[in-house]
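User: Can you predict the 3D structure for this chain?
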Amino acid sequence: MDDSRLDAWGQMIVATLPGVAISHSVAFGQLSITVEAAKIVEIARFIRDDRRCRFVNITDVTAVDYPGREKRFDVIYHFLSPTLNTHIRLRAYASETTQVPSLIEVFPGADWCEREAYDLYGVIFTGHPDMRRLLIDYGVDGRALRRDFPLEGCDEVSYDV
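Assistant: Here is the predicted structure, written as structure tokens:
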């Protein structure tokens, strides 16, 4: 899909969902929509069900940490529309205490991706049926992919050979 079609499509989504979709941009052949974190379920349902979109596959949920900002996390969602043969990215801003609604109700495949973002960044997803650590042991303090996490880790580990 060329950039002009993606731009028109982004304009359509922002115009259709005022107060939910805040803005859009096109870069590297991919459409990104900035959304209100509290309304993520509403826009996810729209892009899945609207006949102009048909994004029926969630491919990833992750975060990016910017510790200098008040809302330090960009919570990033990637979706695929096999019908349109294209991807879309949704971006929501969240602080350490922002509770982002879980997408499991709309996309059950978001389960482990949300758990991973919680485990590695500390993003809190409300309404998730099993929000517990996935990759890192409970004895480890901190969140490994935050930029303020020490490079040598928080705990000293020794092994007997």
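Residues 3-16 form the longest helix (14 residues). The longest strand covers residues 57-65.
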